[in-house]
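Whiteboard transcription, Tuesday session. T.W. wrote the C-alpha cells on the left side:
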C-alpha cells in the first residue's frame, strides 16, 4: 500500500517509509506490553484461585478487612490504568499510521502524540537545509577555484607541477621535462610534511650526481630542485 501511495504521501505530510515502520514497531511494542500486563493479571487471578482451592482463603468463611491503602487494590488499579493507557496510545498510533498511508494531512493531535514536527516546522527545516546546502556548494566552488589558482601559481613560480598521488606522497613534474613520464616522487616522513624523502623512480636514476650533491651532502631539497630545473632548462636551450 505504501508503494502504491508514494506520490500521494509526498504531496501530504513528508514522512518516510522508515518512520511509518517505526510507528508500526512502536504499536507492536505497546501491544506486547499490554499482553504482558494481561498475562500478569491472569497469573495473579490464578494464584488467588489456587489459594482458595487449597483452603488458604475462602470468601464465604473468611472475613476480609480492606485497608484504605490496600496494596493489592492499588496494584490492580495501576494495572487497569496501564492497560487503558496502552490501549489508548495504540489506537492513536494506528490512526496516525492510517493517516500517513492515506497521504493526507496529519491531525494536529496525532502529530503531538507521535512527537512529529508540524508541517510548518518541516517546511522551515527544509528551507534551512536547502540554504545550508547552497552555501556549502558555493564554498566548494570557491575552494576548488582557489586550489586551481594556487596550483598554477606554484607551477609558474617553481617550474614544477605538484600532484598528490597517494596519502603523503607527491609527484613533481618539471615544465622542462623531456618526457611526460619524467617525474620525481617525494614522501612526507615527518608531521605536516616537515621532512620529505625522495623515492626512486626511472627519472631520478638519471640524475645521481645532483642527488649525491644536494640531497645527501647538502641536505637541501630546494637546491636539488633548482639545480635540476637549470639542468633541464640548459638541455632544451642547447637542443
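and on the right, the sequence the group agreed on:
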Amino acid at each position: 500500500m505504501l508503494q502504491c501511495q508514494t506520490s500521494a504521501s509526498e504531496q501530504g505530510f513528508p514522512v518516510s517509509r522508515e518512520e511509518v515502520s517505526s510507528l508500526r514497531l512502536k504499536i507492536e511494542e505497546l501491544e506486547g506490553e499490554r499482553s504482558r500486563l494481561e498475562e500478569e493479571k491472569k497469573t495473579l487471578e490464578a494464584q488467588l484461585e489456587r489459594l482458595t482451592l487449597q483452603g488458604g482463603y475462602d470468601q464465604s468463611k473468611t472475613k476480609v478487612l480492606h485497608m484504605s491503602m490496600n496494596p493489592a487494590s492499588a496494584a490492580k488499579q495501576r494495572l487497569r490504568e496501564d492497560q487503558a493507557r496502552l490501549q489508548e496510545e495504540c489506537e492513536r498510533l494506528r490512526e496516525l499510521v492510517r493517516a500517513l498511508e492515506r497521504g493526507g494531512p496529519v491531525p494536529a493531535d496525532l502529530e503531538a502524540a507521535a512527537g512529529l514536527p508540524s508541517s510548518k516546522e518541516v517546511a522551515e527545516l527544509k528551507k534551512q537545509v536547502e540554504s545550508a546546502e547552497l552555501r556549502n556548494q558555493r564554498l566548494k566552488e570557491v575552494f576548488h577555484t582557489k586550489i586551481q589558482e594556487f596550483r598554477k601559481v606554484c607551477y609558474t613560480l617553481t617550474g614544477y607541477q605538484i600532484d598528490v598521488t597517494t596519502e603523503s606522497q607527491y609527484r613533481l613534474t618539471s615544465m622542462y621535462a623531456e618526457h611526460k613520464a619524467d617525474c620525481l616522487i617525494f614522501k612526507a616522513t615527518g608531521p605536516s610534511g616537515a621532512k620529505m624523502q625522495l623515492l626512486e623512480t626511472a627519472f631520478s636514476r638519471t640524475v645521481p650526481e645532483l642527488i649525491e650533491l644536494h640531497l645527501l651532502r647538502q641536505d637541501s631539497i630546494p637546491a636539488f630542485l633548482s639545480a635540476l630545473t637549470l639542468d633541464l632548462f640548459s638541455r632544451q636551450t642547447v637542443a
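Someone added at the bottom: The chain is about 65% helix and 10% strand.
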